[in-house]
Amino acid sequence: MTIIILDYEDPFVAQEANREFQQRGFIFIKNHPLSVDLLSRAYGEWSEFFDQSLGMKGIYHFNVEKAGPKDGYFPLYAEHAKGIVDPDIKEFYHFYPWGQTPHDLMSIAKKIHDGLLKMGLCVLNWISKGDYLSAHEDSNLSDIVDHGESTVTRILHYPPLDFENISPRLRSAAHEDVNLLTVYPAATQEGLEFKDNEGIWHRVPSDPSIVAIGIGDMLALWSRGRLQATTHRVINPSPDHNYSRYAFLLFLHAKNYVQLSPEHTAASYLAQRFRDNGVLTQRTPKIHQKF
Ligand SMILES: [Fe+2]
What we know:
The protein has 8 helices and 12 strands. With 291 residues, it is α+β, with helices and mostly antiparallel strands. Helix 1 links the parallel strand 1 (5-7) and strand 2 (26-30). The longest helix has 26 residues, at 103-128. It is globular and about 50 Å long. It starts with a strand and ends in a 15-residue tail after the last helix. The structure holds fe (ii) ion.
């Protein structure tokens, strides 16, 4: 199946996006409004954060005990895919505009967050025009989306691999995201792959002119399965390209109180996923307190 790259400015893009989501399960977009220069600068600045010692990064360690969204730094091996024992080979930072952030990174993180949020809301608006949601009950997507409390920009660092000791693990094992939508601007290296509705894996280009969008479990639940969550993974680099990989992404969430299914609100569903991913079994280090 040939991959189609949609044009953000195309007047028929909503229609085409819905067709792609139904037939394939994800979309790629060109002519998007996210500045390539801004993205490049942001990767440069955040790479300096991850280059620091664990002690320095740990000042911003997320608070395990705090209920709800978790802002701050998640060290290497903090998370594994649901149903997978081995942790992913990544460290990351959860940026919320209301959360803890190193002062010198706040401005660029907020710009990236705002740019990704704008795109995510636009794509959600396209989805709301899809007729496959028309049989759903009374709420619509613009009413359930969270703009501030739970929606988060994740900044990821996948370090170079020690091939002797990690085989056959992946940088990130195959999984589905918990949220409504995930917005993926280009990473600094390839490796991200999406599985289409026919079970075929597709390489996501690390071309800054293209942004990828995947569906999350919350939207799959909310749509009563009419949209499928996008299965994705990050494969390992070859030994001759074994460098750090940095990636931004935005998890667009539903508001906490939204009833996604008879069993779950968005808040209880997120809490369940934290348990499934091993995040709540992390010990908060003593360095959690800021100096
Ligand atoms: Fe993911």
